[in-house]
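no rush on this but wanted to send it before i forget. theres a chain ive been looking at and ive put its sequence and its fold in token form underneath. please have a look and point out which stretches look like helix strand or loop to you. thanks a lot i owe you, the record is right below:
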Amino acid sequence: MTAEDLRPPAATAEDLRLRPVRDDDLPHFFAFEQDAEANWVAAFGPADPADRAAFDAHWRRIRADPAIVNRTVTVDGAVVGHVAAFPVGEQTEVSYWIDRARWGRGHATAALAALLAEVPQRPLRARAAKDNAASLAVLRKCGFVVCGEDSGYANGRRAVVEEWVLELAD
């Protein structure tokens, strides 16, 4: 993989940026999670996306944890999603959520690439449902390679789902 492969895709005239999560971002994030198709594709989301109290408690907890890097993704100033790096045991994992209305424009790849430039620790891990081709493509474009597999109950599908575990090494 070359540096050209890791360059965020040209987003035409759109200006994608990451910034710290603010209180006024949370209604956007909550609205994004109401999309049933996005929840099915992501698979491993909240148990009840409509439970605002659980959503608020989750975001209070993760925003208060200094070990978690949370960033809001904006495009031309509009909130389009979020990305994060967070500890899981001895590992650090990354995740992202982009508004389904913005899928297919390279925002997830560009946002993850920007997060990777900000987060120095390696290796980093990520997980994706085995049938989530778009998320797997994002991770591969950013240098992640499959290093294992796992399965677990996925709230978005109400079933056990097979997933790939990917790693970005040094």
